[in-house]
Amino acid sequence: MHSAHPPAEVRVFSHSAALIDGVPVTAPPFVDIQEVVIGILHQRAQQMGGPAQAAISDNRYGGAIRLLIHPDGTTEAMD
Question: Which DSSP string corresponds to the chain?
Fold first, then answer.
Protein backbone atom coordinates (compact mmCIF):
# COMPACT_ATOMS: atom_id res chain seq x y z
CA MET A 1 0.00 0.00 0.00
CA HIS A 2 1.40 3.40 -0.99
CA SER A 3 0.62 6.75 0.56
CA ALA A 4 -1.71 9.20 -1.17
CA HIS A 5 0.48 12.03 0.17
CA PRO A 6 3.43 13.32 -1.89
CA PRO A 7 6.83 12.01 -0.84
CA ALA A 8 8.80 14.03 1.69
CA GLU A 9 11.83 15.62 0.02
CA VAL A 10 14.87 15.02 2.23
CA ARG A 11 18.37 16.33 1.62
CA VAL A 12 21.11 15.27 4.05
CA PHE A 13 24.10 17.62 4.19
CA SER A 14 26.19 16.23 7.04
CA HIS A 15 26.06 13.84 9.99
CA SER A 16 24.12 16.52 11.90
CA ALA A 17 22.14 18.56 9.33
CA ALA A 18 19.37 17.96 6.81
CA LEU A 19 16.30 19.52 5.24
CA ILE A 20 12.89 17.85 5.22
CA ASP A 21 10.56 19.58 2.76
CA GLY A 22 12.77 22.67 3.05
CA VAL A 23 12.69 22.75 6.87
CA PRO A 24 16.10 22.55 8.59
CA VAL A 25 16.62 19.56 10.89
CA THR A 26 19.61 19.03 13.15
CA ALA A 27 20.79 16.08 15.19
CA PRO A 28 21.94 16.41 18.79
CA PRO A 29 25.53 15.44 19.69
CA PHE A 30 26.34 11.74 19.23
CA VAL A 31 23.17 11.10 17.16
CA ASP A 32 23.35 10.63 13.39
CA ILE A 33 20.99 12.74 11.30
CA GLN A 34 19.65 9.52 9.74
CA GLU A 35 18.05 8.56 13.06
CA VAL A 36 16.45 11.99 13.40
CA VAL A 37 15.09 11.98 9.83
CA ILE A 38 13.63 8.48 10.13
CA GLY A 39 12.10 9.43 13.48
CA ILE A 40 10.37 12.47 11.97
CA LEU A 41 9.10 10.45 9.00
CA HIS A 42 7.89 7.73 11.38
CA GLN A 43 5.89 10.34 13.31
CA ARG A 44 4.46 11.60 10.01
CA ALA A 45 3.35 8.07 9.09
CA GLN A 46 1.68 7.66 12.49
CA GLN A 47 -0.15 10.98 12.09
CA MET A 48 -1.30 10.02 8.58
CA GLY A 49 -2.35 6.57 9.72
CA GLY A 50 -0.45 4.98 6.84
CA PRO A 51 2.98 4.77 5.23
CA ALA A 52 4.94 7.92 4.47
CA GLN A 53 7.07 8.11 1.33
CA ALA A 54 10.41 9.89 1.26
CA ALA A 55 12.86 10.77 -1.49
CA ILE A 56 16.23 11.09 0.25
CA SER A 57 19.37 12.62 -1.28
CA ASP A 58 22.49 12.19 0.85
CA ASN A 59 25.26 14.67 0.02
CA ARG A 60 27.63 12.81 2.38
CA TYR A 61 27.82 9.86 -0.01
CA GLY A 62 26.34 11.22 -3.22
CA GLY A 63 23.50 8.72 -3.12
CA ALA A 64 19.73 8.84 -3.32
CA ILE A 65 17.04 6.44 -2.16
CA ARG A 66 13.27 6.32 -1.95
CA LEU A 67 11.85 4.88 1.28
CA LEU A 68 8.46 3.92 2.59
CA ILE A 69 8.19 4.41 6.36
CA HIS A 70 5.33 2.59 8.05
CA PRO A 71 3.45 3.69 11.21
CA ASP A 72 5.00 0.76 13.12
CA GLY A 73 8.49 2.15 12.37
CA THR A 74 9.54 -0.34 9.72
CA THR A 75 11.09 1.02 6.55
CA GLU A 76 11.47 -0.41 3.08
CA ALA A 77 13.23 0.73 -0.07
CA MET A 78 10.98 1.60 -2.98
CA ASP A 79 11.75 0.86 -6.62
Answer: ---SSPPEEEEE-SSSEEEETTEEEEPPTT--HHHHHHHHHHHHHHHHTS-EEEEEEETTTTEEEEEEE-TTS-EEE--
